[in-house]
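In response to reviewer comment 3 from the previous cycle, which asked for concrete evidence that the modeling workflow produces usable outputs, we include below a single protein chain processed end to end. The sequence was submitted unchanged, and the resulting structure tokens are shown without manual editing.
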Amino acid sequence: MPIPDKVAAANKINDLLRGVVTHGGLRLKYRITVDPPLPEERDWERPEILVELSGPDSTLLLERGGELLRAIELLAIEMLRLPGNEHEKICFDCMNQRALRLQELQMAAGVAAERVRKTGMPYEFAPMSSRERRMVHLALRDHADLHTESQGEGPRRCLVVYPKNYKPAAKPVRKTIP
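The workflow returned the following structure tokens.
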């Protein structure tokens, strides 16, 4: 379901960013685009609103894997009251970090795929956001000999790559004597 009033949503994001930049003393500029055109290699992401940030303090947004950038994006998503399955409708980027991260995840997916093929054992990625898990799922979607699955809860949720017909070894049943 699309955002009902994208222009009003973009204006709310503008107000939020103006406050964050001004009161945070950040040297940043930003551009908000409604229905942005995106390159074909980003077919996994079709945001309705794209926010691109740049400036001398860009590095602050990208430290710790883009933690501050993701936090500001999450504030915007919460402010607009988008349900969890619609978070991808808003996209914040800084210095093309999203495209670089996509390349990194695609390379990691390729390495994991080769490891699973070679060993016949599942490969578990470190915990990552739902968007990043989705990128890995999509990177491996055309590998007919593999199967991907998200496991875990909350911030510990991760993605596991399995051989297509993988059957885990049966765990011994532990019986307690009454």
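The helical segments are 6-23, 58-79, 97-119, 130-139. We consider this sufficient to address the reviewer's concern, and the full set will be provided in the supplementary archive.
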